[in-house]
């Protein structure tokens, strides 16, 4: 069973979220009213996912995400907020969040989002990625050769990163490249390790910031062979 710690400064909201998640088979191990308290609870109970509101006292959700990643907490982060603002999405992803969901989303989507993030996937629609990157990443040139930031990746790893940046999950990438899902997972894990990233969501941001792909444009050409 997937487990979470909930953090929101409104007790009524936390109570509602707990009820929604528990009714859908997600175990709620604890709650907190601010980001600092959420991290303390998470260190004790080690949930699969931290569900964090963005606007909280003491430590907001973005700062709490950064600290969770920097200290190696091990719990993945799902940012849940009322505010549909690109800057929040972008900062949450850069901080290391695995997903971003509005509180107005359907209840079933919340439980599914928790499970997706717990599994290490990025909860990001391709349209959202294109929109936030277009708004907040000033234009690096389209990919030609190897972007310096990605020099440590093999041709195949860069090819996989392009497809991750397009919002594709491992099964879809495996079908596209005619690889096994296990092989794709290995490539994704190597990309994260080589680049010092904590989530697929951060890999998406890196792909756009480095110029490997461009918002609304094509990705890198396919190398055509593995290395």
From TrEMBL:
<feature type="domain" description="HTH luxR-type">
    <location>
        <begin position="146"/>
        <end position="211"/>
    </location>
</feature>
<dbReference type="Pfam" id="PF00196">
    <property type="entry name" value="GerE"/>
</dbReference>
<keyword id="KW-0805">Transcription regulation</keyword>
<keyword id="KW-0238">DNA-binding</keyword>
<feature type="modified residue" description="4-aspartylphosphate">
    <location>
        <position position="53"/>
    </location>
</feature>
<dbReference type="Pfam" id="PF00072">
    <property type="entry name" value="Response_reg"/>
</dbReference>
<dbReference type="InterPro" id="IPR039420">
    <property type="entry name" value="WalR-like"/>
</dbReference>
<dbReference type="InterPro" id="IPR000792">
    <property type="entry name" value="Tscrpt_reg_LuxR_C"/>
</dbReference>
<feature type="domain" description="Response regulatory">
    <location>
        <begin position="3"/>
        <end position="118"/>
    </location>
</feature>
<dbReference type="InterPro" id="IPR058245">
    <property type="entry name" value="NreC/VraR/RcsB-like_REC"/>
</dbReference>
<keyword id="KW-0804">Transcription</keyword>
<dbReference type="InterPro" id="IPR011006">
    <property type="entry name" value="CheY-like_superfamily"/>
</dbReference>
<dbReference type="InterPro" id="IPR001789">
    <property type="entry name" value="Sig_transdc_resp-reg_receiver"/>
</dbReference>
<protein>
    <submittedName>
        <fullName>Response regulator transcription factor</fullName>
    </submittedName>
</protein>
<keyword id="KW-0597">Phosphoprotein</keyword>
């Amino acid at each position: 069973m997937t487990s979470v710690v909930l953090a929101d400064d409104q007790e009524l909201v936390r109570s509602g979220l707990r009820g929604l998640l528990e009714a859908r088979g997600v175990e709620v191990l604890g709650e907190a009213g601010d980001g600092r308290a959420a991290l303390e609870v998470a260190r004790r109970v080690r949930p699969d996912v931290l569900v964090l509101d963005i606007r909280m006292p003491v430590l907001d959700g973005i700062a709490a995400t950064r600290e969770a990643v920097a200290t190696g907490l091990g719990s993945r982060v799902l940012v849940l907020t009322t505010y549909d603002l690109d800057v929040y999405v972008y900062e949450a992803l850069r901080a290391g969040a695995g997903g971003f969901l509005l509180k107005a989303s359907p209840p079933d989507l919340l439980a599914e989002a928790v499970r997706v993030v717990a599994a290490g996937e990025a909860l990001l629609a391709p349209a959202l990625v294109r929109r936030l990157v277009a708004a907040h990443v000033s234009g690096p040139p389209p990919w030609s050769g190897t972007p310096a930031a990605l020099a440590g990746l093999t041709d195949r790893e860069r090819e996989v990163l392009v497809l991750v940046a397009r919002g594709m999950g491992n099964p879809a990438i495996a079908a596209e490249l005619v690889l096994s899902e296990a092989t794709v997972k290995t490539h994704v894990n190597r990309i994260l390790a080589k680049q010092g990233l904590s989530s697929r969501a951060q890999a998406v941001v890196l792909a756009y910031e480095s110029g490997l792909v461009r918002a609304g444009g094509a990705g890198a050409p396919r190398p055509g062979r593995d290395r």
